[in-house]
Amino acid sequence: MLQSAQKRLLLLLRNNTTATFGIGSSSSTTRHHIFTRADKFLVTRQRQEISALYHHILAHHATPSTTSRLSLCHSGHLFSAFHHTTSTSSIVTTIRTRTATGTETRTTTGTGTKRAFATATATATMNGEAAGTKRKEPPHHHHSHLDGGRLPKHHRPNGGGGELSTGVSTNDNTPDTTVLQDELSEDDGGGYEDDDSRIAGGVQQSAAVAVGLPPVVTGGGPDTAEWQATIESVVRNVVSIRFCQTCSFDTDPALTSEATGFVVDAERGYILTNRHVVGAGPFWGYCVFDNHEEVDAYPVYRDPVHDFGILKFDPKAIKYMPVAALPLRPDLAKVGVEIRVVGNDAGEKLSILSGVISRLDRNAPEYGEGYSDFNTSYYQASAAASGGSSGSPVVDIDGFAVALQAGGRADGASTDYFLPLDRPLRALKCLQEGKPITRGDIQCQFILKPFDECRRLGLTPEWEKQTRKAFPKEVNMLVAEIILPDGPSHKKVEEGDVLIKVNGEMLTNFVRLDDIMDSNVGNTVKLLLLRGGEEVEVEIEVGDLHKITPDRFVTVSGGSFHNLSYQQARLYGVACKGVYVCEAGGSFKLDNAENGWLVQTVDHKKTPDLDSFVEVMKTIPDKARVVVTYKHLRDLHTLHTTIIYVDRHWAKKMKLAVRNDTTGLWDFSDLADALPPVPPVVRKASFIQLEHTSHPAVADLVRSFVHVQCTMPLKLDGFPKNRKWGMGLVIDAEKGLVVISRAIVPYDLCDISITIADSFAVEGKVVFLHPLQNYAIIQYDPKLVDAPVLSARLSTEQITQGASTYFIGYNRIGRIVHAATTVTEIFAVTIPANSGAPRYRAVNVDAITVDTSLSGQCGSGVLVAQDGTVQALWLTYLGERSPTSHRDEEYHLGLATPTLLPVVQQIQQGISPKLRVLSVEFRAIQMSQARLMGVSEEWIHKVSEANTAHHQLFMVTKRTFERNEEAGADALLEGDILLTLNGKLLTRISELDVMYSHEFLDAVVVRECKEVTLKLPTVAADDVETDRAITFCGAIIHRPHHAVRQQISKLFSEVYVSARTRGSPAYQYGLAPTNFITHVNGKPTPDLETFLKAVVAIPDNTYFRLKAVTFDSVPWVVTMKKNEHYFPTMEIIKDSSEECGWRRVTYEGGKVIEGEGPDGVMPVANDENTEEMEVDGGGVC
């Protein structure tokens, strides 16, 4: 009868409605999800019939213990939910919210981007994922492989792709799993049926109301008076937590996020939340109560292992509502208990999600890389919580907290994982009584395994009988899973050992095991184990968990380091020792920016721990090059070796940061001043011989190439990288002049290292940056070089299309390649502007292409004539960001050498070039276009005679905004076609070079089909480059650079946000790159001087208002809170008297400090693959 009703209902829905109908129970494996294709509304009679069928199916399908659920919603809304949300569980939440409130559907952020009718493989999440974090899961791990929802150890990937994904749900729907599979298949009848292994159906009586079905109340529904009273009481205790992890530490990156917590001691001001919210180190944040009162909060305790932490706030700061504590009652958690999760779900405040506890003995969820809980059991329920609900109280109908919301599946199933409150309650009592919270461990991870599996591991019938008799309700025993090398359990406990007794007491659960370990720190415990059926008794000393959980880190040369934590050691199954790189930046940006490196030696000295690492680094002078060896936690078999350049001048101080749980801050102190650099000495070198070339002059050109590496300590001008390398061409060996692409050396706030003959390195400096033509000239001290460096001879004649030439280039791994080739094309380069973050690009310059595949492989090189004369440079041109790959495009093109000669000659004479430019961008147009735009036949004829290779003219496509442009002066306008400059017909872009040396140019243009004669003023290019920057609240601010003025028609102010640091106030409050700041607290800030004066006057830890305008001319206001402890206001000013060419002034605590201040974290300058100039870290926990 039930099947007949279901089939009839399927038929009605398929033919007459656009609805989704789901039937199921939280414990049943049977689900029916029907997706219909018709786009019609239910008619009254069919609605009545469906309502009757609905009740019939419900009566036969639901039981009080399984809380049957029926949801019916319009597919138009469903498809919208699929489009705007990122997990199937979020879809259910979205529909429920809409139907319950009668308002627009709420879009929620879930965990793993999905298109309609696709879902990810089984994963789980701490109710969301940190922005930018991605983890893949092996494609064939299904539920049958899980033990309590946990993959067997040998199936868990060593580096990330576990069953679950950690952290916080993104604000931008960043996927945390990329393994997708089709969700739906079409049945014979033409309908769609969903596979239960991929979607757990959702319940919501309000969804039924949305289409006119009678409401269904299962058990004690949310509309009962008792539940309403409970919820009204609970919400007053629940807070929304908004916070910044200001710097990377242990498993946590620097990030900005939000989560939930609840008051557990109203008198002392304690809030309970998750450990993955609190983090391994202090955070900077605040809590918002239900009445929207805000109060600062900071962590006073985070458990080293379990997923809970405690925050402290000032209860007196809450003035408009009574603050009450939510009682913790771990004893009330039972299977079948109906619960509510009250919290900040998906970043919304406030959500109330319902469910029923279905099990109490689930193993702790594994979240892949990063933080994971272990050595505890978890509760499981179906509540469909998502990002932001981490730390929510799980309450029963009497208003007691019975568990702590911690995580959930990320594959769309509405399965949630709750932390038992036994250990949080103990920690809270210790804090209340002023006692230390002792935590013991033997560096062995246990997991729960059922009796049948324990039998296979060696559980004897006798011990099974005793265990079942002692614990008649238990079905699991504790089994050793991971034993860390060199730990207390090493060589005493083995994987697969079944734990029988501890100190003579039989136990089968983690609560009692924790009790024993925590009360025996420093003592010895006796363990009785079964190993393959044999009894083994061992004595193990219990270690202090706090001692193997780092509470400090050291920053030096742009990197951050601490001792390897127990969390990381347990994750990878390695010994808990070694120096861990928690921020791989600056000099210690090793193979890539990812974390997980263990430093083995520095400068040929071993660094087994943080103290020895510090002592070694104290002895290394600034600008030294030293050998570093390191391993990755995922592969300790492989030893990596690299040479680093030690930077102790941009970041002079070696700082120690120590976690202070009383104040909730990192306490900074200086460890050592930088040693001065060792004076360089003259070194000898010889160059390689280029073989298999028929022209000796071409082969000799090898002696003109040098390797150039440029490192930028601070991101300016929208440039997306902080480290670049390429090959430079020596154009004057006597003076040490080298020409290089501006895609390698974008600005002069940098360190330049020039390697001669692949033998030794010398320091370089920037001499000249061309504003338009994509090259820079740098210089080294030739007195330090004893090598046959050859000055390249630059051709004075333009190379032509079809000409034979010789290509010499350096490929991506720095190897020289060469081939004879021909010039295929010479054209005016038109590199697209990057709208997301304007940065330098070449304009108004000719580019050359050649007929060899090597040209696409090489970003550096030359085109050479047979006599060895360099006809063109082969350069890398930085392009736009790809909207699909989100990576920066790079173009490899040639630049004819005659263009360089006027500048090179001035520099060789000791003259600083003073260029002038026309503030416009041109593009070539053909005669067919020019004729339609008003160019006369006479001019077209002149063009055909002047340039037989290319019949073209140039049209103004974009004007560059100039600050001091005089009103009424002659100027080029967009759409003008340029005919002549100073009487010379312009048919080649290189003929524009006349502008560089003239204050005024006589021009003839075609404007609106008429010829117009103009006297064009050129603009001095003296102030094109950035020479001053301010870091404020984590934002890097300077005058709008040239690329901004090229792309915008109006400057809203001279205060431009170029980049921002992750985990900063700028990130938290949304002050984004490309914003212009126009006012601070209502006062205009037209320039950097007024801005600096206004922000320095703002007291620390207070709110202020910024008025800003987006790049698209949209004004907006943001309120921010100043934080001088971590992000002091700092000014970086170009100063030729300084050794590195720039000086730093810090404004902190009302004082002006020359150089670095005592506090603060160095702005992170990692490479970007995001559209904005920043490092990802936003989200909700």
Automatic annotation (TrEMBL):
Q: Name one GO biological process term.
A: apoptotic process
InterPro entries, sorted: PDZ, PDZ-like_dom, PDZ_sf, Peptidase_S1_PA, Peptidase_S1C
PDZ domain boundaries:
455-533, 1031-1112
Extent of Polar residues compositional bias: 166-180
Give the span(s) annotated as Disordered.
125-198
Q: Which Pfam families match?
A: PDZ_1, Trypsin_2
Q: What does this protein do?
A: Nuclear serine protease which mediates apoptosis.
According to UniProt, the name of this protein is Pro-apoptotic serine protease NMA111
